[in-house]
Write a sequence for this structure.
């Protein structure tokens, strides 16, 4: 079961503080709902989460093209003008997204994200939402 937003605040802050140049940290569900954020307002976190839903879906589709893999996305890294973007699978139906300035240590960021997912990944899961009729979406 997913922890409440407040329960994740200190963990996301710890990630941001441990990697210089980190701007935003967002935990999201696979359907693009922001679960928790650090370093940005709610509207920014919601936009990031919505964009990540499409990106993780696209990444998963590409992953199925590898015959010996399990078809799941693990990590996406995008270098953009001005910075870096990271999206990592973080539990069943949950993802960890980070935006960082271009001076970020990419290796350190990947390591800290993996450490965070290993520490709390089992608590980072987002079960499918139920419709009013009780069916999962």
């Amino acid at each position: 079961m997913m922890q409440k937003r407040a329960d994740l605040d200190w963990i996301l802050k710890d990630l941001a503080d441990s990697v210089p140049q980190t701007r935003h940290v967002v935990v999201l569900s696979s359907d693009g709902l922001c679960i928790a954020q650090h370093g940005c307002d709610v509207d920014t976190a919601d936009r990031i989460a919505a964009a990540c839903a499409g990106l993780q879906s696209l990444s998963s589709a590409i992953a199925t093209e590898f015959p010996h893999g399990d078809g799941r996305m693990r990590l996406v890294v995008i270098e953009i003008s001005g910075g870096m973007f990271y999206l990592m699978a973080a539990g069943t139906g949950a993802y960890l997204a980070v935006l960082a300035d271009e001076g970020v240590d990419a290796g350190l960021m990947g390591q800290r994200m993996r450490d965070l997912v290993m520490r709390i990944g089992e608590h980072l899961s987002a079960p499918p939402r139920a419709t009013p009729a009780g069916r999962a979406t």
Q: What stands out?
A: The first helix runs from residue 5 to 18. DSSP finds three helices and five strands in the chain.
